Amino acid sequence: MQHLINSNVTNIEISGIRKFFNMVSGYSDVVSLTIGQPDFPTPDHVKEAGKTAIDENRTTYTHNAGMLPLREAISAFVHDQYNLSYDPKEEIISTVGASQAIDITFRTILKPGDEVILPGPVYPGYEPLIRLAGAKPIHVDTRDHDFKLTKELLSEHITNQTKCIVLPYPSNPTGATLTKDEVEDLAHFLKDKELFVLSDEIYSQLTYDEPHTSIASFEGMKDRTVVINGVSKSHSMTGWRVGYTLAPAWLSKHMLKVHQYNVSCPTSISQYAALEALTNGKEDTETMRQAYEKRLDYVYHRLTNMGIELEKPGGAFYVFPRFPIEKMTSFDLGIELVEKGGLALVPGDAFSSYGQGYMRISYAYDMETLERGLDRLETFLKEKSFI
Ligand SMILES: Cc1ncc(COP(=O)(O)O)c(C=O)c1O
Description:
binds pyridoxal-5'-phosphate, single chain, 13% strand
């Protein structure tokens, strides 16, 4: 019977991150710097809003696009933070995390044979969804460009089949951000092209160099861009599962059909919590951002003092250093680091082949854990004569 399963699904592999965790799950006394989510609890007033929603029986379906007050709050938030103008009635869909927002975007726009450009190394959540739609991911090597997609790189890779470009900045796993000028440059290049941009801005509140600029804020771009965002990283709400899409009405109305038949709506309780977070949670985000910034400084200085070459990332909560490994893969290094060094980092090859030789270090951990983890890294690298 197995041959009856959709081959687009059987051909998808479990993510490199998951494979790595399966391999190392049995080890004890391992310091882990692997996590891809905030280590802070959800702010109390946000939790209260969720609890109140339960107590007041606000536990029914909502509008498919999410309850209007939430969409209004999203609209006000993105206007205030990124100078974006989206009509809450027709241009915003509240989704089950940014993950579902990415899914409905791809399923609405992609057909078999289409190509989607991704800047590699890249978050592994896009490729399987592209393949499920029968489309083809085209990874662009950004290693010599500080992990940034540029108009020159795009010119080299855009073909007649290109349907969409994924712009995932600030980046998981590299922490790379685009400056306002860099985004403007891309916008200028893309504004006349018959292409969609999926701009995944889930880390947009976590920047340490300059505030985030959304490509949709430039002239001509709103009509060809789907902005993906949510409260998972900004308000430490990964388990509540609330994200959203911002897209022009003519596109949003089709995305809403895919969304409706998929999930009906995000959880009502979570919507009330997200409403509170986006309305009254600005300071929570800023407090967490400042803590991440201090940790980034610490991690960056420790690594550079070890002699590891690293461009200081401008956003998210990851650093992505390269290690001098020629004869082994990042995956092998990851396993050896756990077995012999008592430290877990995510192997860079989990983020496409362009991550080969790199490891992702998350600093969504308290200082004590970071210190212990980096001590172990230093000892391991010395023993291996890497430094
Ligand atoms: C770049 C990127 N996009 C999307 C997501 C998914 O976010 P959510 O938890 O809101 O679905 C993640 C999660 O790690 C991510 O790193």
